[in-house]
Amino acid sequence: MKVLVIGGGGREHALVWALHRSPRVTTLRCAPGNAGTAAIAENVAIPADDVDGLVAHAAGEKYDLVVVGPEGPLVAGIADRLGELHIPVFGPSAAASRMEGSKVFSKEFMARHRIPTAAFQVFRDEAEAREHLLSEDTVYPLVVKADGLAAGKGVILADTPREAVDAATGMLSGRDFGAAGRTIVVEEMLTGTEASFFILADGDHVVELATCQDYKRALDGDQGLNTGGMGTYSPSAFLDDATRRTVMDTIVAPTIAGMQAEGAPYRGVLFIGIMLTDEGPQVLEYNCRFGDPETQVLLPRLDGDWLELLLASACGTLDQVPVAWLDQAAVCVVMAAGGYPGSYGKGARIDGLDRADAGDGIIVFHAGTALGEDGSVRTSGGRVLGVTAMGRDIPDARNRAYRAVAGIRWEGEQHRNDIGADAAATLEEIRE
Ligand code: AMP
Ligand code: GLY
Questions:
Q1: Pocket test for ligand 2, best of 99, 226, 287, 299 (most atoms within 8 A of CB)
Q2: Which residue among 186, 285, 288 is best mutated to probe the pocket of ligand 1, counting the most ligand atoms within 8 A of its Cβ?
Q3: Best exposed site among 101, 321, 331, 332 by fewest CB in 10 Å?
Q4: What is the residue-wise DSSP string for 234-251?
């Protein structure tokens, strides 16, 4: 089979890694890819946001499957365009991608289908938003969200009316996120523990994937700025069987049935950000793609062939593929460029990769890397590597991951030292 993966980050290296292991994949390409994907697939120099270029390329190549990594091309309709060419595609249509592409759509969808989520209001007008945010009846803290895609930066947690008004006017005026902020959602602040929930769907059938936890802040102890994610582990220490069943019944089932009923059947992976509140699990957000770096711990845990699952999601046959998970844990530690998520340098030479890659149960996923002219691997982004280790449990996987991280170096490298530490501590408590 001839397969194309779209994207060039750690998530896409993990997808390429998983597909590379499938006995049925004969040609594997990645557009645009990175230094990691180049080692096991052929990189195609088309950026992930060049939908016209990607569609033209795919039309000429007659792929058996196109796997779309990031949300941008999905929201822009790449799955619909490839579908018109009869190319099987893993990823939702533009209509179904609105689950991530428009917070207003997703909140109103949840309201229509009684899916538990924070109470909310929608504003398009600055004066009306200001009046609401300054009203004595409005409860603080609250959350202000840009409607459209804002590269993970469009959510502001506001403790005071002043912060909320600043965020709302910055968005509604178009100053902060352009068109994506011209409509906003103002919602109730939920409290509890956050967890990531992943399912595959083919429009009709649903497969639950393994659970995981991510770490969003830049520094140890959840300090510092928000990032795309500094590490992950799987399985989650917080999503027990009973909670997972509640999520499947109260959130996943009505979501998939609702999309089907509204004429936008959901195909692909649905990544649901959940808050485990005292009143039960509630939806924080939907994403229409795999998470990054969640993918780097989910994919290695499947006891099977990802090609079969991704193809079945594209073709509507998910009910025919058995799914089993390895009885092992995975931990991924992100190694980032100094300064990330603020400004950072590029082009530093990365040492120690060969040794780390040769480690037992260690997979070094590349994110922001590129091959230098001398053939060396250089940094080229904020999040540079995702070092994943498998182990018999979280503490074991965590030790292995950090041993591998210690052997990789470049000028200015930074990482968190506490990925999976809270899970390891929770496990200790359970054992005592
Ligand atoms: P989102 O992009 O909607 O997931 O928001 C990004 C992050 O903001 C989430 O992972 C949460 O940490 C936080 N967040 C979003 N909405 C809420 C909410 N209603 N209550 C509390 N935290 C939230
Ligand atoms: N790690 C969070 C995300 O991919 O959205």
A1: 287
A2: 285
A3: 321
A4: ES-SS--HHHHHHHIIII
* Segment 270-325, tens digit of pLDDT: 999 999 999 999 999 999 999 999 999 999 999 999 999 999 999 999 999 999 99
Within the chain, how many helices (H) and strands (E) appear? 16, 20
At residue 315, what is the residue type? C
Beta bridge partners of 226: 217
Pocket of ligand 1 (CB under 6 A): 118, 143, 155, 187-190, 194, 273, 284-285
The answer to whether 85 and 111 have CB atoms below 8 angstroms apart is: no
Instruction: Give the Å distance between the CA of 192 and the centre of ligand 2.
Output: 19
Phi, psi of 304 (to 5 degrees): 170, -160
Residue 116 preceded by cis peptide, ω within 30: no
Task: Assess whether the C-beta atom of 71 lies below 6 angstroms from ligand 2.
Answer: no
For the sheet with 65-68, list strands across it. 42-43, 27-32, 2-7, 65-68, 89-90
The residue contributing the CA closest to ligand 1 atom 5 is 155
Query: How many Cα atoms occupy the beta-carbon half-sphere of 150 within 13 Å?
Result: 23
- Residue ranges of alpha helices (H) inside 249-393 are 253-261, 295-298, 306-315, 353-357
318, amino acid identity = L
CA-proximal residue: ligand 1, atom 11 (nearest) = 284
Alpha helices in 116-220 (DSSP H): 126-134, 161-172
State how far the Cα of 208 lies from the Cα of 201, in Å rounded to an integer: 9
Atom of ligand 1 nearest to the CA of 190: 20
Residue 430 pLDDT: 54
Q: Closest residue (by CA) to atom 15 of ligand 1? A: 284
Residue nearest to atom 8 of ligand 1 (CA): 155
pLDDT digits (tens, 9 = 90+) for 344-369: 999 999 999 988 877 789 999 999 99
CB atoms within 10 A of CB 134: 12
| Ligand 1 center from residue 284 Cα (angstroms) | 5
Upper half-sphere CA count for residue 159 (Cβ side, 13 Å): 0
From the CA of 71, which ligand is nearest? 2
pTM of the model: 0.95
